[in-house]
Design brief:
The chain is an alpha/beta fold. It has two domains: about 5-95, 3-Layer(aba) Sandwich (Udp-n-acetylmuramoylalanyl-d-glutamate--2,6- Diaminopimelate Ligase, Chain: A, domain 1); about 100-315, UDP N-Acetylglucosamine Acyltransferase, domain 1 (3 Solenoid), CATH 2.160.10. The protein is built from four helices and 40 strands. The strands form six sheets. A twelve-stranded mixed beta sheet has the order 8-11-14-17-20-25-28-31-34-37-39-40. The protein is flat and about 80 Å long.
Length: about 350
């Protein structure tokens, strides 16, 4: 697919500096730029690459002033915010790649299901009884949509996604390949023989508008009621959300985060990779948790920044770590003092 630099500048309301007749057919990182590709420069750390890049077009901030000569083959498009504009172009580029409305065969739609306009349904996808699908929804091959599931307008369900019965998705949700929405919560009751009897999980999962779920992530259904991800929540790949968890608006979690049952996470919370969160606790709005930290108790202070396991305020952790690194030296000095005292 080919775009002229004039088209690009028109989309971004940018100023062309260089050859206004050049065209591009692909995208590239600036350090790996090839002829015929479009790149961008937003981070000053990468400025050195613009003086040797092979990219035909580079988006830069209006404030950018080159410190040396830029290759004659490189045309600049100056904009207010290079990073935001490149993201806008990526979105426009992605729109050309999305599937067009059609229902591929073989696929299955139950007689009681209701589907909106402009549905794309990939081969081997399954829509169960009383499913309700909004307009402009894309469901890729091999997806399973269980009975009584509701999916709002503009959602994208990628290949191999499994959405169990009774779950509800708002508008413009994105569920990546292999994710499972609505699997049973981990509910088992021990008996007198030290065996575990399964507790039926009869609730559901509710995803509000603009939620995005990463590949192979699992969100368990509630025992009773709903597991709820509020508007704008973003989960990375391989995240585990347990039964009856509630996650507040615009909270984000990186890969391999695990949240145990019935925990309430506030809005605008950020969790790094491999954070572990205990069950039945509350985390305040705006909390930030560094990677591989453990949260065993309530976090009551809004905007707190935490690190460690168990997690403590990050400045306290840094001081503790400084002491921990010195521990071998301290022990050696202590041993020397003890020997001196004995003598």
């Amino acid at each position: 697919m080919e775009f002229s630099v004039e088209q690009i500048a028109g989309i971004l309301n940018g100023e062309i500096v260089g050859d206004s007749n050049v065209s591009v057919t692909g995208l590239s990182k600036i350090e790996e730029g090839q002829p015929g590709t479009l790149s961008f420069l937003a981070n000053p750390k990468y400025e050195e690459y613009i003086y040797s890049t092979g990219a035909s077009v580079v988006i830069v901030n209006k404030t950018f002033e080159p410190r040396q000569e830029i290759p004659a083959s490189c045309t600049l498009v100056k904009v207010e915010d290079a990073y935001a504009c490149f993201a806008k172009l990526l979105e426009a580029y992605n729109q050309f790649r999305v599937k067009q409305p059609k229902i591929e065969q073989p696929s299955f739609i139950s007689d009681s299901a209701s589907v909106g306009e402009n549905l794309y349904l990939g081969a081997f996808a399954y829509l169960g009884e009383d499913v309700v699908i909004g307009s402009d929804v894309k469901i890729y091959p091999g997806a399973y949509i269980g009975d009584n599931v509701k999916i709002g307008d503009g959602c994208v369900i990628y290949p191999g996604v499994k959405i169990y019965p009774d779950c509800v998705l708002g508008k413009h949700c994105v569920i990546h390949a292999g994710a499972v929405i609505g699997s049973d919560g981990f509910g088992f009751a021990p008996n007198q023989e030290n065996e575990y009897n399964k507790v039926p999980q009869i609730g559901n999962v509710v995803l509000e508008d603009f939620v995005e779920i990463g590949a192979n992530t699992t969100v368990d259904r509630a025992t009773l009621g709903s597991t709820i991800l509020r508007k704008g929540v973003k989960l990375d790949n391989l995240v585990q959300i347990a039964h009856n968890v509630e996650i507040g608006e615009n909270t984000v979690m990186a890969a391999q985060v695990g949240v145990a049952g019935s925990t309430k996470v506030g809005k605008n919370v950020m969790m790094g990779g491999q954070v572990g969160v205990s069950g039945h606790i509350k985390i305040a709005d705006g909390v930030k948790v560094a990677a591989q930290s453990g949260i065993p108790n309530n976090i009551k202070k809004e905007g707190d920044v935490l690190l460690g396991s168990p997690a403590i305020p990050i400045e306290d952790f840094k001081k503790s770590y400084f002491g921990f690194r010195k521990l071998p030296m301290i022990l050696k000095r202590l041993q020397a003092i003890e020997e001196k005292l004995k003598s």
